[in-house]
Specification:
The protein has about 280 residues and is mainly alpha-helical. It is built from eleven helices and six strands. A hairpin with a 3-residue loop joins β4 and β5. Keywords: DNA-binding, Transcription, Transcription regulation. One of its GO terms (molecular function) is DNA binding.
């Protein structure tokens, strides 16, 4: 699958319809124009198929997502109609072939037909891991920069009221965070902490209780000679954690704060990322 995606994704992604899940859902035509279907059920159907690309999504799963409150007796027929409308919509905007296949148990979206941003994110992360394993840290950072730049906001932000898609969105957000954290760690290894601060500050602000992001930000501020700001990050993290979940920061975060307070020389080492 990775090889197929690499060949299709890097060679001709611009000629395929794009499905964007790393932010509010968006469908982009081969000409770059937004062609997202307007009817909510068409979008929900398409999102669920994209999220599970190359895997059969059962009719029961699709019906549950389309009718969250009360499933009509005609749900099976209505589902078939929505699938037909989605196919016609994509075909009318240059998707050749449409790549939504019918199976005995449900439907499957074939990833090779589309440019899927969440699959591209995974592929780029794998490339970065290989580059890092070979000692090419700068190359790995560049690849991860490309990967994290795919994000346009909270994944599937416009579908968080649909339970099954809310779960998918949170999983995609976590994939982004893992990639972003690794990029930040490698940038710090390259002594780029000062340049990293504005971007890392913005991401940490978006996830006010995410400790790893705040630990990295504290370390960036400290290494940039901005100790007071490093300690302020800890204070804000603690406040958010106590308010949100009633817990103190982890032992790791507390230990980092103490080392900053005492100007521990271990914090000056570029490899001291896991405190």
């Amino acid at each position: 699958m990775e090889q197929t995606y690499a060949q299709n994704g890097e060679r001709d992604s611009q000629r395929r319809v794009g499905m964007r899940l790393l932010g509010p859902f968006e469908v982009v035509g081969p000409d770059g124009q937004t062609i997202t279907p307007r009817p909510a059920k068409m979008r929900t159907l398409l999102v669920l198929l994209c999220a599970h690309a190359d895997t059969v999504v059962s009719t029961a799963q699709l019906e549950a997502a389309l009718w969250t409150d009360c499933r009509p007796r005609t749900a099976a027929t209505a589902l078939h109609v929505y699938v037909s409308r989605v196919r016609k919509h994509l075909e009318g905007h240059g998707a050749e072939p449409v790549g939504i296949a019918t199976r005995c148990a449900g439907y499957v979206l074939e990833s090779a037909v589309y440019d899927l941003d969440h699959q591209r994110l995974r592929h780029l992360v794998q490339r970065a891991e290989r580059a890092e394993a070979l000692g090419a840290v700068t190359e790995a950072v560049d690849i991860l920069q490309e990967a994290t730049a795919l994000r346009r906001g909270s994944a599937l932000a416009d579908f968080r009221d649909v339970r099954v898609l809310n779960s998918v969105g949170r999983q995609l957000d976590e994939q982004f965070l893992v990639a972003y954290e690794r990029k930040a760690e490698l940038q710090m290894r390259l002594l780029r902490h000062a340049q990293l601060i504005p971007e890392l500050y913005a991401v940490a602000a978006e996830y006010p209780t995410h400790e790893r992001l705040h630990q990295l930000l504290m370390l960036c501020f400290y290494r940039a000679g901005r100790t007071a700001e490093a300690l302020s990050v800890y204070a804000q993290l603690r406040e958010h954690l106590v308010d949100a979940v009633g817990l103190e920061p982890s032992a790791r975060s507390q230990r980092l704060q103490q080392r900053i307070l005492h100007f521990d020389t271990i914090l000056d080492e570029s490899s001291a990322l896991v405190i």
